[in-house]
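Possible regression after last week's pipeline update?

I re-ran a chain I had predicted before the update to compare outputs. Posting the input and the new output here so someone can diff against the archived version. Not blocking, just want to make sure nothing changed silently.
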Amino acid sequence: MFVYNMTPGIEYALGAMLLFGIGDLVYKRGAAAGAQPHHFLMVQSWVFMPTVASYGLFTGSLKFSPAAALWGGLAGVFALTGFYNFAHSLKSGLISINAPVFRLSFVITAALAVLLLSEPLTPYKIAGIALALAAVWLLLGAPAADPAGRRESRSSLVRVLVATAAVGIGNLIYKYGLRAGATPASLIVAQSVVFVTLATAFVGAVDRRIRPSGAALRYAPRAAIALAFAFAFMVESLARGEASVVVPIAQMGSPRSRRWRVSHTDSSECLGAGPEHV
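New output (post-update):
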């Protein structure tokens, strides 16, 4: 009888893939509705933290430790940097380009896992990374039609590349935390504490008040719930499998968000209400 040995943690990685794709879609809808990135992330953090804390309590895996505080807190800094720049990039960028580039963070995670954690580099991993790079290169191949559009595209691309690098490093930090004995839930909760503190303080410093926009209040909670479980499932997969295997699977949600974007987002919601922003 044929027995298929599933890669450890892949079931969690597949769940994370679906939820990250939903999160990308909500980010673009929020940007199209006019939500400022710092407002969006602040409101997201307000919902994200109690959601992941509830997950940890429900699963009985919320166990605080110095390792969770250290590595989870550090992951929170990188997560805020990544998601702020990703949200900002969507104000003038296309989700069909920026989301796949953003999810390319798995290439950074996989490369660092091989270099720093001594995970095996197999021909399949090399082929997968090469194909991912080729796909994103093709997506970036369409130039903007006018000089102003090219300037916006360059600015958006810089933002999404910063976001990609930050999240790629942050994903590896989870693995260090797990190796130090932290549980998945405790890492994500520690991350969320740092995230909510910095995100709220940033809005207060920039706006001199804490008053999120209506668009942020409408869309950010949806993103928070999707991303809370996406992160929880991804870190659960990291606790069971290799970072260079499960993170690429978890971060492949962007094609789904692109299809849903075409199917469910009315063009009038898009920035500029023009076809170049759809």
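Follow-up from reviewer: compared with the archived run. Confidence is low (pLDDT under 50) at residues 255-278. Marking as no regression found.
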